[in-house]
Specification:
Blueprint: E1 3-9, H1 12-19, E2 28-30, E3 37-44, H2 48-58, E4 66-68, E5 70-76, E6 83-88, H3 92-107, E7 120-126, H4 131-141, E8 149-151, E9 153-159, E10 168-175
Antiparallel strand pairs: 1-3, 1-9, 2-7, 4-8, 5-6, 6-7, 9-10
Length: about 180
């Protein structure tokens, strides 16, 4: 397995709504809507034995289904924007699910995640987009929101080492019940 991470899938109808935000920003490489997801815990490049252990230990997670919602469009990178994202409203169930992934993966011996968990869906990666262009884009689209939508499972994704944006493959799915 090349590179793995845990996450939740974005339902097709929400992905279609997010896809309307594509375009109108020079230097943006838009993520294909089929690859929209919310990363819970990036694990990285691991060998097959570690990947199998991760698959097995994630099966121990027992959580109930919950809802999330997109509550705006923003950027990562500050003065040097590097990504356009759909912000996801933080809620207790999502935060607890992510924290449990972090705990069990650390118990396995994996290094802790260095970045603070900021729930989001990456819409585009930016290359040579000016702060002004990004500000203009966000002034028009920044207030985008979705109604809450259900999360009934989390998954273990794999991807090829690339510049990003997929393709992502679901290696294992874990229902929330």
């Amino acid at each position: 397995m090349p590179r793995i991470f845990t996450g939740v899938e974005i339902p097709a109808e929400v992905a279609q709504a997010l896809a309307i935000l594509r375009g109108g920003l020079p230097g943006a490489r838009w993520v294909d809507p089929a690859n929209y997801h919310l990363t819970l815990r990036f694990i990285g490049d691991v060998d097959g034995a570690v990947a199998r252990d991760v698959m097995q230990i994630l099966g121990r997670v027992e959580r109930r289904p919950f809802e999330i919602a997109v509550n705006g469009v923003d950027q990562f990178g500050g003065k040097k924007p590097r990504a356009i994202i759909a912000s996801v409203a933080v809620n207790g169930a999502l935060t607890e699910l992510q924290a449990e992934h972090e705990r069990i993966l650390q118990r396995m011996g994996l290094e802790p995640e260095q970045r603070k968990f900021t729930p989001h869906v990456t819409l585009a990666r930016l290359r040579d987009s000016s702060s002004r262009e990004v500000a203009d884009y966000l002034s028009i689209r920044g207030a985008f929101k979705t109604p809450p939508f259900p999360i009934t499972r989390f998954v273990l994704f794999s991807s090829r080492a690339s510049i990003g944006g997929g393709p992502y493959v679901v290696e294992a799915a874990y229902p929330l019940r």
